[in-house]
């Protein structure tokens, strides 16, 4: 499944060409809408919206540029991911192609982290991925911001 925005859809199409599997596109996986911050550089955001930016970096709920709250992004994306994961056959794999902010907030929600702590996951670089797996007590983060093929991680509860 993938965001319907151009870059994520193109990435998903490349994966589909290799796997010969269909891609379901959804608006729910779009990047965080950042309102008036959209299209600005980091420096421009700090200059024009310094206090708002600082509050966001402190983990406060901020509608950056009048856009979405991070919790709203997780509210729209995480249920879609969970719905698709619930339909997987035993041992199946779900690939989700989205955008850095949406992936980070969705992972934070799936791991049941407090929203103010989602930033601790760090950013996700372009063309990198994270791997989550089901553990005895819920979802587990097995890899984050990876750039090589993932290897299975065996732990005490596997």
TrEMBL record:
InterPro entries hit by this protein: His_Pase_superF_clade-1, His_PPase_superfam, PGM_Phosphatase
Pfam families per UniProt: His_Phos_1
Domain of life (superkingdom): Bacteria
Descriptive protein name: Phosphoglycerate mutase
